[in-house]
Amino acid sequence: MAQKFGTAIIVVTHDEKIIPTFKRIYHIRDGVTYEEAGEGRDFSTIQQ
User: Measured between alpha carbons, how far is 29 from 27 in angstroms, rounded to an integer?
Assistant: First the structure.
């Protein structure tokens, strides 16, 4: 759906079982991104 409409879908969860569902994963701790994985642009590019 995100590709079809050229947008992003953000899901916030503590359930690691759903992680394989997504192409890009950002791990956030204390409000700071500390790990990224998957396809797509990195977080520093998105913030600009």
Answer: 7
* Block residue for tokens 């050229």: 6
The Cβ of residue 11 has, within 10 Å, a number of other Cβ atoms equal to 10
- In the block, tokens 């590019």 appear at 45
Tell me the pLDDT tens digit for each residue of 1-46: 777 888 878 888 889 898 888 888 888 889 888 888 877 666 565 5
CB contact set of 21 (below 8 Å; sequence gap of 6+): none
- Round to whole Å and give the CA distance between 47 and 5: 21
pTM of the shown model: 0.57
| Helical (H) or strand (E) element with 27 | strand 24-29
